[in-house]
Write a structure and sequence with these properties.
6 helices, 77% helix, elongated
Length: 211
């Protein structure tokens, strides 16, 4: 049986949240190991990118596999139990919904690759860093939109918003992270590109005077 803990959290939800904490800890260790020479801003970005990749590969990757060979609802194991817990908030994740699985395939394959390339670009100060950062952020925002917009247009029949835990923690907080952080990364890229453009404009008159 799924025993209840304080604050209405089930044992599965507590273990799932503990798993998320461990993923964040792993991302922090990787950031400390590889991002020591980066600026404070870039270290925060690296922390997010490492966490992003870990989540995509260790949580969403298994979800895609379970959904392609069967469904989460009929699967067994710790990760299946985690997704069954999340499925209490959004039932589409239990039944291999084609829209959800399609978005997740794109997320696991494309977004993970972009995030890994962006980590390399940040660590090595590559010229294509902000191209990747903007592309990844747009992909993440598109994934979030296509995850929820189709259900909203139908009146949200698959979303359980009556339970505060499911609504605010599972749906709003965890999905909101993949909206808030990409928006912040887009803003950071905008400011960096604006700064580069301003520096180039400031140099141009000086170069003309030399001529």
């Amino acid at each position: 049986m799924d025993s209840e803990a304080p604050l209405g959290l089930s044992l599965v939800s507590i273990l799932s949240l503990l798993g998320c904490v461990l993923q964040l800890l792993a991302a922090a260790l990787l950031t400390h190991r590889y991002g020591g020479r980066s600026s404070s801003t870039d270290r925060w970005i690296l922390l997010w990118l490492f966490y992003n990749v870990i989540v995509h590969l260790t949580l969403e990757g298994p979800f895609v596999y379970m959904s392609l060979v069967g469904t989460v609802e009929t699967s067994e194991g710790p990760l299946a139990e985690l997704w069954k817990e999340y499925g209490k908030a959004d039932s589409r994740w239990l039944v291999s919904d084609p829209n959800i699985v399609s978005v997740e395939i794109l997320t696991v394959v494309l977004d993970s690759l972009l995030a890994l390339l962006l980590i390399h670009a940040v660590l090595n100060d590559k010229y294509y860093r902000h191209f990747l950062q903007i592309t990844l952020s747009v992909c993440e925002l598109y994934g979030g939109w296509m995850t929820f917009c189709p259900d909203w247009l139908l009146g949200s029949p698959h979303l359980n918003t009556s339970n505060p835990l499911y609504l605010w923690l599972y749906l709003v907080f965890f999905n909101g992270l993949w909206v808030l952080v990409p928006v912040l990364l887009l803003a950071q890229s905008w400011l960096c590109l604006q700064s580069l453009h301003t520096e180039r404009e400031d140099r141009t008159p000086a170069q003309r005077k030399k001529l």
